[in-house]
Specification:
The chain is 29% helix and 15% strand. It contains 11 helices and 14 strands. α1 crosses α6 and α5 packs across α10.
């Protein structure tokens, strides 16, 4: 079995009957019902997360998410392979589900690089059959605080003295302020477009037409960021989705990072005063 964060369509074709496959497609609505990899259960974002006061895709307590994973048929000894379709060559929503499972302590999980399109291009079949998994037995006990960050722990405006590198995965136009923050967050009192000290690293830097770029290519992109060895790395975006792509890329390159789940959706309304920088 593969222990890599990414598996190829060819690998999955050969091992389809040995793994638990989850389709984490979020958009367009109804895509899973139209076609999916045979045997894949539907990882429904509307069931896996909930909207809280400041966080669009908030995390349920571990005991609640455990019930959901069991409904998807996940067992303790399973290898789970996640895919999606659409944005970022099918990697955006799948990366979010990948990070989520890891956050709940389930580590035997991989992503299908290139998503459903790559699967089909490699000759993989699809169908529209409803999958009703047998109830799984997976145990979920606690959050992994090594990869999950909350608002209270991040010293905004004081990154340098606290040895922090903060990566913002939003598109450059949002980061610089070319696209006003108020266009995404009406009524925000923020005066800037990003937090002071943030480094823009959009997911387009690590994604190509066939999924994640090679590790060598991603390593070269990361090297240009000027990260300080030993610093705590945080990744954020608007809702924690795009940041999941960057989290996955960093992980493959051997860089540990915490994903700030609230991201700009939380900051724009909870602490707009820290969103005080513009430009590059």
């Amino acid at each position: 079995m593969s222990t890599n964060s990414l598996v190829t369509p060819q690998w999955l074709i050969q091992n389809l009957n040995k793994v638990r496959v989850l389709d984490a497609s979020y958009m367009p609505a109804g895509a899973y019902a139209t076609e999916h990899i045979p045997g894949a259960a539907f990882y429904n974002f509307d069931s896996a997360y909930f909207k809280s006061e400041y966080i669009k895709f908030d995390l349920y307590p571990p005991e609640v998410f455990q019930k959901y994973l069991r409904l998807l048929g996940v067992n303790n000894n399973d290898q789970v392979v996640i895919y999606s379709r659409g944005a970022a060559s099918g990697m955006m929503f799948a990366s979010r589900a990948y990070w989520t499972l890891k956050t709940y302590g389930f580590t035997n999980v991989s992503l299908l690089n290139g998503g459903l399109d790559a699967w089909k291009a490699a000759g993989g079949s699809t169908n529209a059959e409803t999958v009703k998994p047998t109830l799984g037995n997976v145990d979920v006990r606690a959050f992994n605080s090594e990869i999950l960050a909350n608002f209270e722990e991040i010293p905004f405006n004081h990154f340098k003295e606290n040895n922090i590198d903060y990566l913002d995965a939003r598109i450059p136009a949002q980061f610089t302020g070319q696209d006003p923050l108020s266009a995404t967050y009406p009524g925000t009192k923020a005066t800037g477009s990003h937090v002071t000290g943030a480094i823009n690293f959009p997911m387009a830097e690590v994604i190509g037409p066939d999924g994640f770029l090679s590790q060598q290519e991603v390593d070269e992109k990361i090297a240009k960021l000027g990260l300080t060895p030993g610093n705590q790395v945080y990744v954020a975006c608007n809702t924690g989705i795009q940041a999941s792509v960057i989290f996955t890329a960093l992980e493959r390159s051997g860089i540990k990072a915490k994903l700030y789940n609230g991201s700009m959706t939380e900051l724009a309304y909870r602490a707009p005063e820290v969103v005080n920088a513009t430009g590059n």
